[in-house]
Amino acid sequence: MSTEIRANTVLPARREQITLHTADGLELIGELALPESGQPRATMICLHPLPTHGGMMDSHIFRKAAFRLPALADFAVLRFNTRGTASEAGRSQGSFDSGNSERFDVAAALEFAEFHDLPNVWLVGWSFGTDLTLVHGLDPLVEGAVLISPPLRWSTEEHLAAWAESGKPVHALIPEFDDYLRPEEARKRFAAIPQAEVTGFPDTKHLWVGKAEDALDAIVRTIAPDVPTPLPRTWDGPSETRQVTIVNS
């Protein structure tokens, strides 16, 4: 019997609560979701929106990615709370540092992925997380970046030039009605990265309310183009429904 995949539908996966350890001595709360069996084809490390405006590892696109993509795309999904950020899973140590000390948080996630031999690692940033990706995420382990609603608030021309020189793929997902950067301006700004792809999403706003499926399809198309998209909207196997408690940082 087919089950409609809804916002709180949890598909089968191996899920593990994890702790990331930063070079400056903090412990960060996180979760790793893996395919139920076999090796993942790719790994997405989720860098969440601004915690001072409600961003966390449970921000809805990343929560749905962890609930669905291990089963639908054979992805490993690593999500965590940056320093000082709280979610249902707990609060990470430390305090928000406007994207500066968060470089240690990004490094800790990459070190975890490397130590656990997670394959084909991509950074997937959303809003504030896109600045963390562009400023701190250009690491040899990283295959490429997906940027959801990038405001380019802290990312400088120097950071864009570094990604351009790296040749690593960059795909920016830009809502038509974004609060900070809309498709036409995004194409101008990302022209600094010749290999960057900018895709506009009609009738979509910064928070992607009601548009998570579009974002997940675009992420999968970028990271694993051999996986058919759009992803299934129904599931024929076991599943559960989980109500997530949204915690304010």
UniProtKB/TrEMBL annotation:
<protein>
    <submittedName>
        <fullName>Alpha/beta hydrolase</fullName>
    </submittedName>
</protein>
<dbReference type="GO" id="GO:0016787">
    <property type="term" value="F:hydrolase activity"/>
</dbReference>
<dbReference type="InterPro" id="IPR029058">
    <property type="entry name" value="AB_hydrolase_fold"/>
</dbReference>
<keyword id="KW-0378">Hydrolase</keyword>
